[in-house]
Task: structure prediction
Amino acid sequence: GQNIDQPTEMTATEGAIVQINCTYQTSGFNGLFWYQQHAGEAPTFLSYNVLDGLEEKGRFSSFLSRSKGYSYLLLKELQMKDSASYLCAVKGGDSNYQLIWGAGTKLIIKP
Amino acid sequence: DGGITQSPKYLFRKEGQNVTLSCEQNLNHDAMYWYRQDPGQGLRLIYYSQIVNDFQKGDIAEGYSVSREKKESFPLTVTSAQKNPTAFYLCASSMGAGGPQGEQFFGPGTRLTVL
Result:
């Protein structure tokens, strides 16, 4: 079957660093996406990984290990506006158009 | 400004009524998608369309119907056959499917409540 696991909720302090993990078991793999979603709003794209390694984009970085079926999103210098849900999605189904989505990790930032 | 619009943001309907949710994009994207989001669950794909006049069922198509008569528009009808229609509905589009072109851009969503 197709499965993506993320922690349900995490709490971190403003100014700190937090790592959100995502593990996946899919029939295929053609890339992994991270999205940010504020409550009641649309998801917005953060990063895309298809090769092993770290992709850095400002305060956000995303890592992928295809052999381990594992990715993480690293957020540095946390700000209150980073309080949101973070969704991991894998392109790994029968159709290259379909993404398999994790349930998301709700990140709570405390002052 | 390019983007995806969904209307209305909130929609209330009585049980047994069909309702159509609109989705329009001016990004010139070929592919469009409809998702349903419920609390504590990942996005679930209802239907997607790779090109005009063509669409495929996703994981939870039962009780829903779509059309793709124009590149810009992909309306979703929630029929009375859908057993639990109350949810947050998201429309998305992408330029293609391969690589970073598979990045999906989302509309603001429609929250449907069936009374």
Notes: The longest strand of chain B covers residues 44-51.
